[in-house]
Amino acid sequence: MNEQQNISPAIEPERYEFRGARAYIFDLTRRDLFKFLGAGALILCTNAKTSAFQESGRSQSQTNDLPKDISAWLHIGENGEVSVFTGKVEVGQNIRTSLTQAVAEELRMQTSQIRVVMGDTLLTPFDMGTFGSRTTPTMNLQLRKAAAAAREMLKDLAAQSWNVPREHVVAGDGKISDALSKNSATYGALLKGRELARLIPDQDPLLPATEWKVSGKPLPKVDGRAFVTGAHKYPSDQKRPGMLYGKVVRPSKFETKLVFADLSAAEKMSGVIVVRDGDFIGVAAPSDELASHAAATIKTDWTAAPQPSSKTVFDYLRNNLEARESYNSSSKISAPANALSATYTVAYISHAPLEPRAALAEWDGDKLTVWTGTQRPFGVREELASVFRISLENVRVLMPDTGSAYGGKHTGESAIEAARLARAAKKPVKVVWTRKEEFTWAYFRPAGVIDVRATVGAGGQLEYWEFTNFNSGGSGLNTPYAAEVRNEQFQPTKYPLRQGSYRGLAATANHFARESFMDELAHQAKLDPLEFRLRNLRDERLKAVFEAAAKKFGWPGNKKSSGRGFGIAGGVEKGGYIATCAEIAVERATGAVRVVRIVSAFECGAIVNPEGLRNQVEGSNIMGLGGALFEAIEFEDGRILNAAFSKYRVPRFQDVPQIEIVLIDRKDLPSAGAGETPIVGIAPAIGNAIFDATGTRLRSLPMVPNGLRIS
Amino acid sequence: MARVTSLVVNGVTRQLDADTQSSLLSVLREQLDLTGTKYGCGEGQCGACTVLIDGKPHRSCITPTGDAEGKIITTIEGLAKEGRLHPLQEAFLFEEAMQCAYCTSGMIMSAVGLLQTDPSPSETKIKDALEGNICRCGTHPRIVAAVQRAARSMKGGAH
Ligand code: FES
Ligand code: FES
Q1: A652 lines ligand 2 (CB under 6 A)
Q2: What pLDDT shows up at residue A319?
Q3: In contact, A603 and A667? CB cutoff 8 Å
Q4: Distance CA B17, CA A710 (A)
């Protein structure tokens, strides 16, 4: 674990999002202009672009370097309480706990005295955002280094003040002690509230994973009690004195222009603030109900050009190629005539985080403070500074632990809306999106079309491999199997909906196509699907998870009754190795499909918190089950047709099969993140199992949208 | 319009002023500061807003405040007694039956309702009872295990 990892924008080059993001263009009317802004010039907001650049790591504007001083990351109070500062945020992936473990490990102390301050742009060091499964490989390491440096500094302090040899003092249980002189002092007493004024050395004094005492073992969620008692304040729970509730009047469809608005009824309502600024219309009122009521009285008219529908989206993508750079590894050789080929598709789906977007904004003169649920507090700070034309220093974004995100909360829509309303109201304003707004005005996981072609030699070895992904993205594009000739590319296209990041990004789509097609090839070659994969794999870590999952599952399965099927799939992504086996049952008469059992084997290097990891792998499988079987956004002419949980089906208790997880702990390897990769195995495993049971190959996600029936 | 001026919540009579038609969820959250009860959909589909009214689980987002008047309302904040967690709260912690935990209060309140009518529910019964509660993070197996654990410990006479 002593490789130097660069924490700053280690963003995957294929990260693919936010182009065409809708941005507000505020004309900040004279009435609520602040003096410092000068006369009311039109503000051309380019924040969408900034985001895209930032995501791709090409932005020039940020300070990428991690602070080198210990004090930027750690503070030890006189009472011995340790405060840890990180720009990463907690959305349920449990990093508040695993980062606490990391610090406790190196500081040789109890976790109960450690408090982690997360995602506060005033207090924590700059961070690009919490995505790409980067927290464990980068932040965990960074905090361990800071904590180790603090520990060594405390030893120096103690040795000096007791005038004893440095090699004799030891750190343990939150204290430095010297056995010979019998001196002992707590960290708090040694430091007396002073800063840890020293640089983190490049030297790596970290404990190897094999000697971990706190990490590598389960630790219950550090603030679990606040969650089970309802005490924790999520972004949507935040309150400030005098706060109003905000509502935005939404256009009738996407890509619209406002042509008419009648605000008069709302403006007459007492206590109601009405804002129209460009195409933005919103209200703020002392209760959520009154705000909704006032917003409903506003009459608007919008124009828009006709837009594509979910029924024709795959043709649309194929016919609207963009000439932007694509990522490929192309040979000059093209497909042999005897190649097997197939086309796979994936639908647009929604993250549908249970807590919708929410923000509370408060102005104090020209200073703006916003509490919001975002994976990129520093990105949202930049958006706000840009939209309101104020300096970054005047914006503080705080991210209370949030009701999940899954890649869906990278942007600051609700923050901008709340801030705009708060400015007009001259009071704090909270905006909490409704479920319908979240289903409509957030962004989606991109739809995609994937063409695959391949040939297999007489010995069962892959010879030719061709793989083209239209629109959904480049993550997980490259096959881990050893094909002699490979043509792989990601082809960007125009697209009809606002699209962005999602747990696992395009790796889900690419694994669905690749691992389903591997199954097709195995059947063509008359080989067992597992055997076929192993024959073509050189990557020992991937082989190991395939073998572990198969063993636990009892591959190739024992067909007790007809209508049962077994499938296997796997892959490697973001440093994590996953293999998943699925057993499904199809009811002959009705065609109803039920997933009976899932076994996943996962390996991501040295495990930091086994129970937290298990929870993530289970959760990835269950979330992935929805996209595999029935989740799909339906849209037509700029409108979402199923913007409600009653119309958009997410996995529920009855859908959840028996799930078994095998974790492989590689203490000899650096820890990788785990919140995303385990999601990629389940869809192809289920599809392959359905084929095994029925002989029907389902090549579109979701596979059985019609009430779990093979249509 | 008819108004509601008090509600009995977590054993205390609370003064407020709400339209009888206002959703109980918004009144609890906005007027009584009981934000442990969550908004997830507003259409009775996700269960995040579940509270007990006279001991039975209700979706507060579609419950008019007038309907709860004069009844006994329990929210997640009222479950722990004198700092001692309810066995379901303990069990959710023990099984780590949460990730983001935004669904947790609704899950626990629904489960309290279940265990009141059926102290030792089968796995199928638990899944049935919680089918209307969404956990988007996918902690379902842990939630089922937590309810089973709480059922066992409550039979032991803890509550
Ligand atoms: S918010 Fe009431 S059921 Fe979803
Ligand atoms: S834990 Fe996140 S929704 Fe259930």
Answers
A1: no
A2: 96
A3: no
A4: 53
